[in-house]
Design brief:
The complex is a heterodimer of chains A (242) and B (153).
Chain A: H1 23-34, H2 38-52, E1 65-66, E2 70-71, H3 72-85, H4 98-121, H5 130-134, H6 149-155, H7 160-172, H8 178-188, H9 195-202, H10 206-230, H11 235-238
Antiparallel strand pairs in A: 1-2
Helix pairs in contact in A: 2-3, 2-4, 3-4, 6-7, 7-8, 8-10
Chain B: H1 11-19, H2 31-40, H3 46-107, H4 109-120, H5 124-150
Helix pairs in contact in B: 3-4, 3-5
The chains are: A mainly alpha (242), B mainly alpha (153).
Chain lengths: 242, 153
Amino acid sequence: MNTLVSDIRQPDMLPAEPVPLSGAKLDAAIKAMEAAGFIERLTVRIMKLAAGKGFYNPFDEVDVDLPGGKSAADLATEIVEKALIGRFIWDDEKHPDFYRFCCSRGESILSNWLAKNRRLTSMSPVFEGDDVEEVDANAVNSAIAGTDVYEILRFRNGGKLGDQLLEEFALTLADNSDEQSIVMAVHDDRECISRAYCRGKLNLSEKNFDAAMKRIRRAASDFLKEWCNRNNISAEERKEVR
Amino acid sequence: MSADNRPDQTKLERLAVLLRDDGVDPETMEVAELAQYLKDQKVEMAGPQKQFAALLKKARARQTLERAHARRLKAIERAKSLLCAGADAAEVVREKVRSMIQNLGQHDPEQAQVYAREFEKATPEDLRVLEEDLTLLELEAAEDEKGDSQNPG
């Protein structure tokens, strides 16, 4: 898996000598950090951001790693550290709350990682406008597609490989079952990323929806192994999928 | 779920998102709930928590240093203003001694000249001594004048 690096050039990051937080800003940051559960809350928030961006492997229920093997907790700590030492500049007018500022950094890091990997792994990357500037090498934008199978599926050929897998997966599920309806709905409807929407669309009770999701999780892992064998996805590429 | 996530998402990513949509909102959770959630998700927190505690400690140390520095600057400012006030006080004494020497010169010019020479090279400490001497002389002179007026002839 290629590394999730947070020192991507961003508009509010200093390219030169960082200036550590001081004065009222340092006081405010410390006060925020002293709030009970600060790092735990920030970690869960980053997990939710990552989950919302499809970072977690759908074929691995216990996958909590971000690219490069980092966890959301590692990223949360790194964000706080970089904010304190001035690598990330906290604009307290834009984000009066230090916690919110750290969340915004998390969002930005994850979005940048996704954007760069989508572009670098698409069939015909076209660099336009700002993209030309982004070609400057750094650890993230010079990385090629990861070797984790989920990364291959989500990025190769603009995600077409993953889409194909999803379609085939739906067809292996019991015809007209709730689980097949859910996977087909996800396949056909881009809004079907929220539980509430999906349940409403398919008119499923909470109990039936949860049961179907459980069956999807169970079936997905076995299907992936079989599908990778059939499509010659190598063992190396699968090694990170438990 | 942010609408910003949607446009670029692949179909497989949509499934990944849906499978992780558990309705959890960290901003409304109690600390114990957060801890339990992270435990359930098998997120290793011991290392990051230790690192975070070290960051907080370092930040507090920097804050303490900053405050000490500010206190030092304030103390220096106060000392400077006290020194200025001291210099003003010395100037007042100097003027007073000069005036006393002039007064002395009116009835004892020779002694006044001696004091004037001392005055020229006097330090602030010397000025204090001169002031005391001259005050005593003035008192003596006043006593003499008083005695003369009571015992004329």
